[in-house]
Amino acid sequence: MSLLQKKQFLIAITSFFFVFSGFVSASEQRWVKPMDPVGQVTNASQLFQETYNRKDADKLGPFYAKTATLKLDQNPSVHYRDNIVQAWRAGFEQGVDNLQLEPIEIIRTGFRKVVETGNYVLTINTPDGAIQQTGSYTVLWRVHPFGIKPPKIIFDVVNAN
């Protein structure tokens, strides 16, 4: 290789690395870094509460996995997302009004599992006026390990005091 060819080769390689390093830094700025699973569930739980308080049963459906189970205190278990949506809809029609969740612990229990436990206050409108039901809840969430998909509720258990 002649000296001129060597210089041109070095310039081409150097230019490539400058362009490539600029592309990498730009791409790193565009991609949102995945949130940790506990953070994913914390955000999803807050969004669930906000959606619930809008009394939109259909919008609650996507929070649940297709084969999820909901167990409300003394009632039989409700299986599958569509049935859970119908159960929430029936609750809203019967006067269930406002939900306040107070998470106590949100812990990762496996590669794709997070458990949320806490207390709740539920306002129910009755013909005699509003009453407040208190209790505890436990939710098993399935999370995507890299945060690409939103967490899904697999099992939701509510126990009234």
From TrEMBL:
This is Nuclear transport factor 2 family protein. It comes from Grimontia kaedaensis. Coiled coil: none annotated. InterPro entries: DUF4440, NTF2-like_dom_sf. Residues 45-142 form the DUF4440 domain.
